[in-house]
């Protein structure tokens, strides 16, 4: 057996000991608590999210890049490597960590009051509480500037009305970070999900990300005190900065799905014989494997560069930088998954192998937190200085 794809360039030499430790920890969690059962969760469309959250919390994987409140304060690269290992098990599990840590916890950590931080961050970090992030709406996905959810003042309180959709964790969440338009711009709120007027309904019959819980949120006259508002969030830039943070996890995570597909295809090709010898010895198969290994390594180097840059400047990356990473790595990860399926023939669609599950999951990852087209326009605007988005 030859070397594994990410060993071709000795890429581990670029990582610190702490970063390798974070990767090993996440891999153990995935091996112990996800891989043995995930195929069944995917087929049934149900996963024990609360039990998984507790295990992920014990390992310190929620909000591990944040500081204070007993959080680890790990590097962005450590978080990325952890996400790569989790998504190598399943995209839905990595999505759980990204939403909890890089959307919900980050929003509270960066824009919340001290009271909100001290109340929610320890519970979310431990997995005792589950959070969701309500930005996307039925008619406003790629264009959050048009959001219809409204927040109006009523005496000392706020009243929220609207609908949010395709919200990961919504059906099981204890708290929701909700974004709404107010008289003076976009504002955010920390909303306990047991408050009157808040309802979440599961979106069923998904063909992708089936080992996760996704839903639609309705807000019908939800009354909140001023203390529920995120005081540091004063415009649409606040939720967009949270998305920038979470997209780093995606840029890393999809490499795990791609690597798992490629490892599976390599092992399969070495043992599958046709015409009297392993198909791994055929030129066309080796050409496929070489091209996929090349793209996987390029994606890793891109993710590592963005992670190092984020750690060096200690602030969110520019939108076009994130767009380069998400556009390239998700697009190439899907290509790798599909190509691995061709190597495995009909067996590539069986649930005993992860390839088809990864390929299906990556179709969702391609779309959420910015479609490929949106990221292309973000890059195009930076290159030309011209805004091609619809007005």
UniProtKB/TrEMBL annotation:
Classification via Pfam families: Acyl-CoA_dh_1 (PF00441), Acyl-CoA_dh_M (PF02770), Acyl-CoA_dh_N (PF02771)
Residues making up the signal peptide according to the UniProt record: none
Domain Acyl-CoA oxidase/dehydrogenase middle: start-end pairs: 132-222
**What is one Gene Ontology biological process annotated in the Swiss-Prot or TrEMBL record?**
fatty-acyl-CoA biosynthetic process
The entry lists its GO molecular-function terms as: fatty-acyl-CoA binding; flavin adenine dinucleotide binding; glutaryl-CoA dehydrogenase activity
> What are the names of the required cofactors?
FAD
Keyword Transit peptide assigned: yes
| Stored InterPro entries | Acyl-CoA_Oxase/DH_mid-dom, Acyl-CoA_Oxase/DH_mid-dom_sf, AcylCo_DH-like_C, AcylCo_DH/oxidase_C, AcylCoA_DH/ox_N, AcylCoA_DH/ox_N_sf, AcylCoA_DH/oxidase_NM_dom_sf, Glutaryl-CoA_DH_mitochondrial
Q: Which residues form the Acyl-CoA dehydrogenase/oxidase N-terminal domain?
A: 19-127
Which UniProt key words apply to this protein?
FAD, Flavoprotein, Oxidoreductase, Transit peptide
Q: Which residues form the Acyl-CoA dehydrogenase/oxidase C-terminal domain?
A: 240-382
Membrane spanning stretches: none
The family annotation for this protein states: Belongs to the acyl-CoA dehydrogenase family.
According to UniProt, the name of this protein is Acyl-CoA dehydrogenase
């Amino acid at each position: 057996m030859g070397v594994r794809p990410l060993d071709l360039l000795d890429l581990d030499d670029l990582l610190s000991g702490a970063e390798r430790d974070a990767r090993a920890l996440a891999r153990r969690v995935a091996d112990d608590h996800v891989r043995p059962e995930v195929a069944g969760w995917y087929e049934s469309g149900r996963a024990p999210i609360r039990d998984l959250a507790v295990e992920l919390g014990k390992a310190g994987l929620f909000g591990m890049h944040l500081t204070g409140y007993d959080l680890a304060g790990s590097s962005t690269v450590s978080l990325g490597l952890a996400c790569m290992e989790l998504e190598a098990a399943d995209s839905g599990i990595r999505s759980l960590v990204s939403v909890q840590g890089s959307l919900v916890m980050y929003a509270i950590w960066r824009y919340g009051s001290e009271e909100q931080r001290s109340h929610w961050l320890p519970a979310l970090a431990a997995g005792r509480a589950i959070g969701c992030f309500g930005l996307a709406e039925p008619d406003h996905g790629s264009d959050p500037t048009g959001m219809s959810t409204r927040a109006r003042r009523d005496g000392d309180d706020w009243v929220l009305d609207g609908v949010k959709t395709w919200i990961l964790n919504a059906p099981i969440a204890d708290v929701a970070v909700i974004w709404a338009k107010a008289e003076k711009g976009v504002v955010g709120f920390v909303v306990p999900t047991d408050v009157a007027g808040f309802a979440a309904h599961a979106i069923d019959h998904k063909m992708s990300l089936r080992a996760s819980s996704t839903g639609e949120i309705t807000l019908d006259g939800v009354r909140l005190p001023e203390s529920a508002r995120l005081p540091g969030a004063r415009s649409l830039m606040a939720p967009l900065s949270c998305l920038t943070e979470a997209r780093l996890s995606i840029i890393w995570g999809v490499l795990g799905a791609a690597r798992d597909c490629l490892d599976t295809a390599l092992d399969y090709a070495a043992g599958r014989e046709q015409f009297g010898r392993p198909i791994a010895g055929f030129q066309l198969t080796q050409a496929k494997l070489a091209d996929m290994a090349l793209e996987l390594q390029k994606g890793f180097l891109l993710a590592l560069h963005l992670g190092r840059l984020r750690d060096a400047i200690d602030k969110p990356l520019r939108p076009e930088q994130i767009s380069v990473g998400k556009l390239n790595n998700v697009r190439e990860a899907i290509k790798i998954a599909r190509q691995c399926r061709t190597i495995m023939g009909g067996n590539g669609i069986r649930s005993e192998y992860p390839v088809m599950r990864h390929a299906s999951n990556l179709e969702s990852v391609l779309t959420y937190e910015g479609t490929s087209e949106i990221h292309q326009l973000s890059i195009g605007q930076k290159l030309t200085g011209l805004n091609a988005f619809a007005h």
